Amino acid sequence: MSACAAALVIYTLEERNAGSAEVICQETLYFHISGCRWALERLSLLTPCVFPMIPITVSYFANHSSVTRVGAIRKAAMYGLGIMLTFVVLGMSLALFFGAAGINKLAANPWVNLLITGIF
User: Fold this and answer.
1) pLDDT tens digits for range 73-112
2) Residue 5 pLDDT > 80, yes or no?
3) Do the beta carbons of residue 32 and residue 4 sit within 8 Å?
4) CB-based contact 112:106 (threshold 8 Å)
5) 10 Cβ neighbours under 8 A, 6+ residues apart
6) Are 32 and 6 in contact (CB under 8 A)?
7) Burial 15-34 (b: 16+ CB within 10 A, else e)
8) Rounded to an integer, what distance in angstroms lies between the CA atom of residue 43 and that of residue 54?
9) Which pTM does this prediction carry?
């Protein structure tokens, strides 16, 4: 059983008791959830979609270094907004074209998944 699941079980069992045990359990639950979140965030950096982007992002900011802190923050904000807007526009366009459930049906299609598997 993972630490997250154990913390939830402890919280559920201790939830019935009143007093300081509940406060301690809530603090323990928060600590375990924070620890699990931190670990999962670090593991997500190793996924095939994110890992190749790390050197690209670092080289972008290294090659486009600003003289001032404000300039660096502005460039970082524009970089992040550019990524967000790209996915929002792409997602909205696909939703308008295929409908809200259309993309889900396409993603669940076994032939599409076999094609993607064959490509990669």
Assistant:
1) 888 888 889 989 999 998 888 888 888 788 888 888 899 8
2) no
3) yes
4) yes
5) 25, 28, 29
6) yes
7) eeeeeeeeeebeeebeebee
8) 13
9) 0.48
Cα atoms in the 13 Å half-sphere on the side-chain side of 92: 6
pLDDT digits 0-9 by tens, 21-42:
555 566 677 777 888 888 888 8
Backbone conformation region of residue 99, classed left if phi is above 0, alpha if psi is from -120 to 50, else beta: left
CB 23 within 8 A of CB 4: no
Which residue did the predictor score with more confidence, 19 or 96? Answer: 96
One-letter amino acid at 12 equals T
**Which pLDDT belongs to residue 1?**
47
Burial 63-85 (b: 16+ CB within 10 A, else e): eeeeeeeeeeeeeeeeeeeeeee
The token pair at 86 is: 């790209």
Contact call for residues 106 and 98 (beta carbons, < 8 A) = yes
